[in-house]
Write a structure and sequence with these properties.
mainly alpha; 8 strands; about 55% helix; about 5% strand; Glycoside hydrolase family 88 protein
Length: about 400
């Protein structure tokens, strides 16, 4: 009987502690929700802050931006919060810093373990959010962030590669490299190797860009096909080149953003620096030829006149950001800042909607696009036009804030 009483007493304590913790969490969440309801989004603010505050007002917790069922460590949240990092660096508004930190602290426990992260899936997308950890560790010196950084870096050590030494996009996509993957993995890899490895892996990083440049370049347009299958076994792959059958705007945007962000960590004196700058200039010149009079670019950029094609906001935002940053850093000629501003003007005129309370929305963003998988995606023109088109999707929101911040708009 005493034993049962003892067990009951322990259970009661545990239940009470759990209840107290839940109450505190609910109170915190309630306070956050109430605070966001009071946000005033003035039209005197720059577009960067108007969008950032609009997102916080709609989604007090960053993991919920795309309305997924539960918090998840994935690339899209990392994309948006990377934009908040740039905005925080410029404004020093703690609201933006806390928005980042609250998400990361929800996902990383006291041991530095990332909740839900599976290294063995070897998914290059999962690296992207790791970029948020560098500044958090620098500012707080919290060892959890360093442990999580090392965990993500260890994925790259074991990540499967093509015979030509390129990272597979995912373990479930053997022998395939996608343009998207360069943004997901290389900026993290570049910063990590410069901060913790004395730059010893910069050649490996440059090699990833060279592979996709050489293998997916389309000599007819100067653009790049979405992906490459070295084995040439995938039904979507060209049997001679291994390339995907079409060019997708956002894939080009990923490639451009990856270049300008990796160049932050590629020293000018490094022998691969000029190679990456050349790739950026080559792509920028080609992409600018396909810019619509509105300033935007089409979902399938080289088929502007085909039925169903539309001016897509995420890829257009990505190029506004990449061209502006490239010009500001001296990688691109000054004319590309004008091209970036024209793109941003087009986004404001054609793709931004404003509520009565000042909250702003970004429209016409492609939800997602890929190759293979289940259900099968064949990379046809019709496929790229079949994907859902959304408002306030993270793929567009992050680059929009980056572009607005870079252009000081």
């Amino acid at each position: 009987m005493k034993f049962l009483k003892h067990i009951f007493f322990i259970a009661l304590i545990l239940f009470s502690n759990n209840l107290l913790t839940n109450c505190k969490q609910e109170k915190k969440e309630g306070n956050i929700l109430e605070a966001t309801k009071q946000l005033v989004i003035s039209d005197t603010l720059k577009w960067s802050e108007r969008m950032a505050l609009s997102i916080i007002k709609r989604n007090p917790e960053a993991w919920d931006i795309d309305h997924i069922p539960e918090p998840k460590w994935e690339y899209k949240v990392g994309l948006v919060l990377t934009a908040y990092e740039r905005l925080y660096a410029k404004t020093k508004n703690e609201k933006y810093y806390n928005y980042i930190k609250d998400f990361v602290d929800m996902m990383i426990d006291s041991t530095g373990t990332i909740k839900g992260y599976e290294l063995e899936s070897y998914n290059i997308d999962l690296i992207n959010s790791g970029k948020l950890l560098f500044n958090l560790y620098d500012k707080t010196k919290d060892e959890r962030y360093l442990k999580a950084l090392k965990l993500l870096r260890s994925q790259l050590d074991g990540h499967p590669r093509t015979a030509s030494n390129g990272f597979w996009h995912k373990n479930i996509y053997p022998n395939q490299m996608w343009l998207d993957g360069l943004y997901m993995g290389e900026p993290f890899y570049a910063r990590y190797t410069m901060e913790f490895e004395e730059g010893e892996n910069l050649n490996d990083i440059a090699h990833q860009f060279k592979l996709l440049h050489d293998k997916t370049f389309d000599k007819n347009t100067g653009l790049y096909f979405h992906a490459w299958d070295e084995s040439k076994k995938m039904p979507w792959a060209n049997k001679e080149t291994g390339c995907a059958p079409n060019i997708w705007l956002r894939a080009l945007g990923w490639y451009a953003m990856a270049l300008v962000d990796v160049l932050d960590y590629m020293p000018k004196e490094h022998p691969k620096h000029e190679q990456l700058v050349h790739y950026l200039n080559e792509l920028a010149e080609a992409v600018s030829d396909f810019q619509d009079a509105s300033g935007l670019w089409y979902q399938v950029p080289n088929m502007q006149d085909r039925e169903g094609n539309y001016l897509e906001s995420s890829g257009s935002s990505m190029f506004a950001y990449a061209f502006a940053k490239g010009a500001h850093k001296g990688y691109l000629p000054a004319k590309f800042e004008d091209i970036a501003n024209k793109a941003f003007d087009g986004l404001i005129k054609e793709r931004i909607e404003i509520d009565e309370d000042g909250e702003i929305h970004l429209t016409k963003t492609c939800k997602s696009a890929g190759l293979g998988g289940n259900p099968y995606r064949d990379g046809s023109y019709e496929y790229y036009l079949s994907e859902p088109i959304l408002t306030d999707n993270s793929h567009g929101l992050g680059p929009f804030i980056m572009a607005a911040t870079e252009l000081n708009r």
